[in-house]
Amino acid sequence: MWKLRRFLGAYRLQLTVGPVCKLIEAIFELLVPLITADIIDNGVRNNDVGYVLQKGGLMVLLGVLGLGFALVCQKSASIASQGFGTKVRNALFRHIHTLSHKELDRFGTPSLITRMTNDINRLQLAVAMLIRLVIRAPFLVVGALIMTMTIDMRMALVFWGAAVLIGLVLFIVMKRSVPYYKAMQNKMDAVSLISSENLSGSRVIRAFGRQESDKQRFREESEDFTRIAMRAGRLSALLNPLTYVIAQGAIIAVVWSGAWFVNEGELQTGEIIALVNYMTQILLAMIVLSNLVVIFTNAAASAARVNEVFDTQPSVTEGQGAVPQEGTAVPCVTFENVSFRYEEGGGYALKNVSFSLPKGMTLGIIGGTGSGKSTLVQLIPRFYDCTEGVVRVNGVDVRDYTFPQLRSRIGMVPQKAELFSGTIRDNLRFGQKDASEEELIKALKIAQAYDFVQKTPEKLDKQIAAGGRNLSGGQRQRLTIARALVGQPDILILDDSASALDFATDAALRQALHEETAGMTVLMVSQRVGTVRYADKILVLDGGTVAGFGTHQELFRHCGVYREICLSQLKEEEVMNP
Length: 578
Prior knowledge:
ABC transporter transmembrane region fold, Rossmann fold, four-stranded antiparallel sheet, 12 strands, 63% helix
């Protein structure tokens, strides 16, 4: 947690005022047993009602003042803890957005969500307890021990022995429970992952009748989490009874031996009552400390997980900025001996890929499943950096551009059509906030989405559910294409983004792109021969390598891989006679 202290910088006042107020309250609390002893030994014994009322009024005053200081501390703790949590959460969210796809793939969405919610909530609680109790509880223990020494050194030995035993119990339980709390957090990630998959894929699960198996899968992970939590709970459950046994044993020892000292005239009755009260204070403070051990053990595990994200640096770093080369002779996109692998030491997803695409041309990319099509187009906007070789946009290495400079030139339509909650208008303006109504309508018409949008009563103001769940697959794909077109990018990447469209709509989309996006360079990834056959050039990938590059006719004659793909989808006369 020490590494996260920078987020508490704005709350130095609360971090100072809160503990000081709690310390003053603890001092008042330590004075109460002495006043009680004084009332018994001097007021009650002498039947002095005025003295009892005077000292009783002092105790009430200390109680009221203590309550006031406690409320100030409580408010300080709330301000600091909630502010700290907000700052950490915002900083973590910003940092996650700096990470490249490689790091996001490694952590996983459910784990990141758990770290931003559950883990930070635990850190907030730890900060609140830090202000409210971390100073008060130890001070009460030490203060009570010192106060017992002022009453009787012999009796103080009982208190010191009890304190040492309780501290030993706390240390052993803390040491044994830390690994369990870390394991609990990891299991929570697994439960979150299954929950996320189950909720997002509920239609698929029901379609295949997998409800029972999915319930079993969730039950197993949940039971694993429960087993670990129970082990940690058993250890934590030992704290209170053990501390109670030790403290109550100490109280019995105090009363037993104290009675003898009272009979001998070495101690007074009020002093014995004060000693019992101090032992009770030590007991209660130790119980608080035992609960703090659990809270801070949890917080330490959570802090380690949050710091793991903060310590992770993006593998794709932003360039310093570059000036793209102008002129028609400069290729729009160039791959020079590009190789890429997702993991160090793993196999290559792409190997020695080289090609150039002039400005304003359309490139079709086709290949079998796992051939590297999506990987290739993700290297252009730098979602990943190539392992070897160079990717250039307008003659400049993509690593030299700033992210806004590069990605403002590229319109990306991913495989999974992702829409966000809000209106259609909000989604279309995702990349260009000030897009006019005419620009939105033009993009919808090119994407073949205008007709179905116009048929809705709300038109552009139709509300879209998160992920576009209230739209069909084809409608989602067309809206994501329109969203990319609104920004009028220099390069449009369609990553198998027409797979849910019927052949007529697909053909109309290609025709509209050809007619309405003159000067725009288009890269079109598809499994369909019919989608890429009319492209100016076609890139054929096979196992991550370039199997062919040319026009449809050229590739059908000279590229065996492309010919095989064509004949698997079309008859030979259809291939040769479009």
